[in-house]
Amino acid sequence: MEQAALGQNDQNAFPGNVDNRYNQVSVFQPVKAQYVKVVPVSWNNHICVRWSVLVGSGDELLPASTECQEVGIGSNSGGRKTVYLDKKFECPMKVSKANWLGGDSYDDTFEIMSNKDTIVVTRTDSPGSGWGMNLRVKCCTA
After folding, report:
1. Which residue of 17, 36, 78, 107 pairs with 24 in a disulfide if CB–CB is 3.0 to 4.6 A?
2. What's the average model confidence in pLDDT over 28-52?
3. Structural domain includes residue 129
4. Which strand (E) or helix (H) includes residue 140?
5. What is the DSSP letter of 105?
6. Which residue range is the domain that position 121 belongs to?
7. What's the confidence (pLDDT) of residue 136?
8. Beta-carbon neighbour count of residue 82 at 10 Å?
9. Distance from the first to the final alpha carbon of the chain
10. Residues 122/57, Cβ–Cβ less than 8 Å
């Protein structure tokens, strides 16, 4: 069984909410794991966390109205790439071999930031370095 190392260090940490009126929802692509461990890495005043895990193979957990598409990001030589995407789709915020599409097994990691109708993909394991693989991710409607 593969171990899911999500949220165990700053590179894989999910952002929390910044005030108690709003929830922060962090969603990641399904991973196969026997156990899930949540480790808070920082807090203000006092520690408090609420979380849930959806169990299943992945696609059946999406609402019936969810539409997904494969987004081709491709390769890059400068460590950052902008890709145009219909703003109705949301892509994973963190990308690695655990959730990119295809059989590549590199140890590269990426961050995806959404900005209106574009996403900006940045390599995080080696900032400023490009990547040679044809990077692809699955993005879905909320």
Report:
1. 17
2. 76
3. yes
4. strand 131-141
5. -
6. 10-141
7. 94
8. 13
9. 29
10. no
Place of tokens 């910044």: 18
C-alpha dist (Å) from residue 123 to 60, 63, 73, 92 = 30, 30, 12, 14
Q: Would you say residue 1 lies in a domain? A: no
**Which of 133, 123, 139, 126 is CA-nearest to residue 84?**
139
Instruction: Please tell me the predicted confidence (pLDDT) of residue 6.
Output: 47
23 domain-assigned: yes
Look at the chain and count its residues: 142
Residue 74 tokens, joined? 């491709």
Rounded distance, CA 62 to CA 137, Å? 16
What 8-state DSSP symbol labels residue 12? G
Q: How far apart are CA 73 and CA 67, in angstroms?
A: 19
Total domains in the chain come to 1
The reply to whether the predicted model has a pTM over 0.70 is no
Structure tokens, 140: 């879905």
User: What distance in Å separates the CA atoms of residue 141 and residue 131, rounded to the nearest whole number?
Assistant: 27
CA angle, 138 as apex, 137 and 140 as ends, to 5°? 140
Closest of 86, 81, 107 to residue 95, by C-alpha: 107
Residue 3 lies in a domain: no
